[in-house]
Amino acid sequence: MNDTVDKLVVFLAKRDGIDKLVKTFQYVSKLVNWHVEATNPDMAKRFKQWEVSSGLSRKAFRTGRFLTGFNLLRRNPGSSNTFRLLAVLANAGEMVYFFFDHFLWLSRIGTLDAKLAKRMSYISAFGESVGYVFFIIADFILIKEGIKAERKIKSSKEEEEEKGMVKKIRADRIMRLMAVAANVADLIIALAEIEPNPFCCHAVTLGISGLVSAWAGWYRNWPS
């Protein structure tokens, strides 16, 4: 019990940890609002307010995060030309997302002209989508390479070394699958803004996608 509490404290001390918790509030409230909208309008209104306030607080908390992409590229530009290109495209898309998300937040709270919100939301979502596509491609390539490496290790005779390396490869694969799940879910949410359609824009689709993204991120950021 104490170990779990300690890990929770560490998790919530991270910016991403707080973001995933508030994201859970945001999309749970969206689903509850949809569920009770017809039967209990007053409760639906309260949960809608919770959803909106959670979304706005997440935007405020992400202030300056677009600089993370620069730092990641500076520290780890990629081991090959292919991954270097994927990293540049993925992080560039994410930087566009976080940068214009600032203006979206300011327009929604009334600091900037409210008419800018729709345009800023579109640009932010477009950059987000581009970033997610290249992050997903990179993760699938690395998962495939990990599977090949695992097969090669299993064919060797070093049993003790084999166990440690295979365990490490499998742990990395799980993390990458969680990243893919989160990115696909967030891509659906972004597509609902870029090209509105009945499937992506439905409250259940958005709610489930948001929770998949939040909980996959929760798993990836939870202290080991």
From TrEMBL:
This is Uncharacterized protein. The lineage of its organism: Eukaryota, Viridiplantae, Streptophyta, Embryophyta, Tracheophyta.
